[in-house]
Amino acid sequence: MAASKTCSMFITRKSSALARRGFPPTGACVRRTRSSLPPHPGPFPLQGGEGCEGLAKLKTELSRSWVRGCLLALLLSSSAVAAPQRIVSLDYCADQYVLALADKEQIAAVSRDAASERSNLPAAAAGLPQTPEGLENVLARHPDLVVRAWGGGYGLDSSLARLGVATVTLGFVDGFTAVRASLRQVGAAVGHPARAEAVIAQMDRRLANIAARVHLLPAERRPWAVYLTPNGATSGAQTLMHDVMTAAGLRNQGARGDVVGWRRLDLETLVMFPPDVVVASFFDLRFLDTDPWRVGRHSALQAFLDAHPVAYVPARKFACSTWFAVDAVEDIFRQFVAPRLMTAQEGGHP
Fold it and tell me: pTM to 2 decimals?
């Protein structure tokens, strides 16, 4: 901001200097014949043409040199702003973004789940201090930036703001577009926006590669799919899971009838109207095995899953809404869509 004001003042002073040297404002320039043009009082001849043409060219050249100088000043000013050096992330979703985008030396602490089975970057979290949630625990790390999705609970942002601690709170992610926004948000906050753009570019390249192949399979031949978790959650439209399934070449049966968001799957409906594929995740989490009432333990569902094609996706790919979901897109496409595409191209009818 200071550099911008400096540039504005600089250009204003230069414009005044031109006027003092006898350069009229551009709007006041009047065309005259060469013979009628009086000697110019300034030290610069109007090279490249006399009168308005020469004056306009000279003023343009001078303006360009000033703009270049101001741009350099702005660049130096922005680079001089120190990136945060004591970053604290408060939940395993925030951990993914911080571990991927910040230098390890910048990180003061991560959450206690940073290296858990729900993390895609356990090696990056190795050796880093871990902190419990709570304002006192956070302040004990002397942070200059706190990154969170839900960690710390309601009201933490305002409490930290009153104490002068910057915070980044990740918003609800309902698709790959929101993943890009979260990457840019955290990348800018930790001082490494280029890293965020590199992750986005790689994600988009992979999605584009799959999309080019999915496009070859007619929509009516793409498999119907249902997403399922051990607790019976399923997905309609406007979720990252919906984006994953459609990007992989599946049709989301849970989005029929313009259903959006998350809801509980009706087991009877699943059995009566079975999809071509079940996309199942979180079945690999050990702590869920202790819940005897979860839908995933129902004998009818177990029999259904044993009898139908299932794409089992590791929980770490979907535990947080991140770019790692592209791994699932590629795996699902390879298992269940690519074979149909091959059959269709050979003239068969999958």
Answer: 0.74
